[in-house]
Write a sequence for this structure.
């Protein structure tokens, strides 16, 4: 492993000052399941590793009917799974969390870390997109919010500036049902070959998102309204629109042909589950 200086700031203000001072030479440590592996394998490089796990003001899961659901950057996936703050309308977030790796890794891995890693196959990204999530970003210059549909810019690239960090993810108040399906070579021990999330709001608004089928996770929206319309009857038309948005590749986990076939199949399966209320 390469040499770096480990720093554990006491509060957010100190963390932001460090990030502003050292810029590209800093990596943020929240869970560490990606960054530590990268440091060991020399695919991630930094001179300063800033550990934010102990910053209390960043911790916690909160919900209210005005602002929706808020999840802080150090919150682990197991904390999401076990939280009583996450209501039925957000259950798909729990389903996606359960799909990632195994219980030991979920004790370390964080939602925000998965988002900031910005891998096209990140397990939490499709679900976060259909839930209309946005990240709250802070720097010494102030705060801003970025909708997740505008956050991902390429393979493991995003809209964060070098002096910024994500402090939390917010999902707006939402009523409806979501579904998530992931395919991987070895359950609990591999990144996804492909993943699909779908969400049908009570008002009939439908969103579909896919992972590992393009350089960034894909969000497909602007469908017909399905409040009083048969979702299952239209599943092939919806799947056609989804297929027109994706461009998968061959890699060590799956072929392009497999991903194309599974994208259609899993989209139709998601629509069937949503249409039947299962």
């Amino acid at each position: 492993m390469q040499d770096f200086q480990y720093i554990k700031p006491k509060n957010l203000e100190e963390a932001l000052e460090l990030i502003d001072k050292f810029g590209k030479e800093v990596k943020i440590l929240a869970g560490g399941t990606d960054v530590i592996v990268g440091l060991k394998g020399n695919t991630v490089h930094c001179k300063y590793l800033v550990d934010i796990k102990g910053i209390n003001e960043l911790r916690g899961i909160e919900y209210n009917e005005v602002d929706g659901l808020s999840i802080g950057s150090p919150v682990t996936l197991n904390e999401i799974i076990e939280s009583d703050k996450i209501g039925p309308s957000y259950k798909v977030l729990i389903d996606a969390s359960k799909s990632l790796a195994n219980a030991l890794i979920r004790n370390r891995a964080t939602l925000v870390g998965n988002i900031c890693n910005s891998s096209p196959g990140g397990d939490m990204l499709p679900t976060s997109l259909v839930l209309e999530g946005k990240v709250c970003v802070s720097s010494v210059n102030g705060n801003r919010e970025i909708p997740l549909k505008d956050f991902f810019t390429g393979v493991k690239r995003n809209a964060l500036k070098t002096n910024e960090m994500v402090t939390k993810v917010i999902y707006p108040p939402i009523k409806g049902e979501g579904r998530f399906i992931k395919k991987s070579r070895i359950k609990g021990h591999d990144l996804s070959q492909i993943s699909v999330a779908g969400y049908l709001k009570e008002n009939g608004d439908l969103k579909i998102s896919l992972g590992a089928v393009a350089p960034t996770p894909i969000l497909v929206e602007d469908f017909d309204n399905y409040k009083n319309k048969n979702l299952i009857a239209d599943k092939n038309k919806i799947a056609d629109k989804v297929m027109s948005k994706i461009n998968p590749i061959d890699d060590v986990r799956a072929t392009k042909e497999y991903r194309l076939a599974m994208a259609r199949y899993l989209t139709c399966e998601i629509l069937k589950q949503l249409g039947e209320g299962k």
